[in-house]
Amino acid sequence: MKKVVVFGAGLVAGAHVRYLLDHGYQVTVASRTVAKAKELVGNHPNGRPIAFDIEKEGDQRLDEIVREHDLAVSLLPYVFHTRVAKSCLRNRKHMATTSYVKPEMQALDAEAKRLDLVLLNESGVDPGIDHMTAMKVIHRVKAEGGTITSFMSFCGGLPAPEANDNPFGYKFSWSPRGVLMAGRNNARFRRDGDVVEIPGPDLFLNYWCVPVEVEGKVIPFEGYPNRDSLPYAETYGITKARTMFRGTLRNQGWCATLKKVADMGLLAETESDLTGLTYAQFMAKLIGKKSPRGIKQAVARKIGLAPINFIVAALDWLGLFSSAPLPAGCKSPLDVLTATMLAKMPLAPGERDLLILQHQFVAEFPDHKEKITSTMIDFGIPNGDSSMNRTVGLPAAVGVRLILEGKIASRGVLVPVIPEIYEPALVELQRLGIHFTETTVKV
User: Fold this and answer.
1) Do 209 and 353 fall into the same domain?
2) With a threshold of 0.90, does the pTM exceed it?
3) Class of residue 168 by CB neighbours under 10 A (exposed 0-12, middle 13-18, buried 19+)
4) Are 9 and 140 within one domain?
5) DSSP for 30-84?
6) By residue range, what is the domain housing residue 284?
7) Is-catalytic flag, 126?
8) Fewer CB in 10 Å around end: N or C, the chain?
């Protein structure tokens, strides 16, 4: 029986672990909160929960765990992936993650090839399923003699329309800190042949309306750039595309609100002593005000808004002007915002989340031009797995199967843009209910 260790027991681990257990693997879940690991494996005879805190334990303990298994999955924060990968190399084990390939991970490619190992990255939903479905269309167009001249892709994890009931239009189905930190990223993309570069502080000033049909109703979402899109022109083999864009989808009002949140410094990780402060005192300290009296009006002035404004109302709803004490253990503004949003904006029992992934291609053929739209609309299961849990965890689990069953011949640091990965993975995902609809219009 093949053995897999999954590091991390967070919001996207459940479907991943159950899939591996259901397919006959022995699965160890290693988490600093062993109760979460126990919950994931339940009473399954092939499941084993263990306590492991990668921030506190050394490489010797990490190596001991990795050495006992055939493959390691890192569902930890991305900053720990390379450490797990290096342990896999030391112990000649395969690895899978759902996160972006960082330079330090890519630097391990030659060694992984030398050791005949697969380090599979970007195997979630975005990145992950987006790569697979994009390459399916791109390879088909090329086989038919066409060229992709424009590629735009949007992805968003959101509350389902009936659960969209707070001023932010958002509920957390994955790492709250990750969602917020993504709001500080620089962005770069190509539009009509011109490279557009957007510094992090201006990210939320650059968005536009993206209408998507959801359950028979067209909803206008906000789409804004997601990191650096340009390397994917080479990854996808569409370097001649005049437009190359990958973006994030959110409900209306998100960008304007998060812009002001960022302007106030609430996304900063600068640590200070926040012990004993109320929210109002914290906000006063943040904007340089001596007293918390009139803090709502003072914050509104600081960010250039009238006190009666939907953004100020959203901050008020969040409780940032209240006399309640800050959550325990907060050391930075980002800590405060993360803890507060997580407490106020979870998916309630019985609520569905929504995952939207849409690619928009323009393909030019010798005798005509086509606009191809490929869309995934996926809902979470009420009182069951969230869509985010399934669409992140299941592709990675399928990738693990492909590696351990010897169906991936390539070696090194991989992403799922090659047919030997994406073709069987998409077939399996469709069987699991994760599928795309495609429309083609001649233009």
Assistant:
1) yes
2) yes
3) buried
4) no
5) EESSHHHHHHHHTT-TTEEEEE--TTTS-HHHHHHHHHTSSEEEE-S-GGGHHHH
6) 264-344
7) yes
8) N
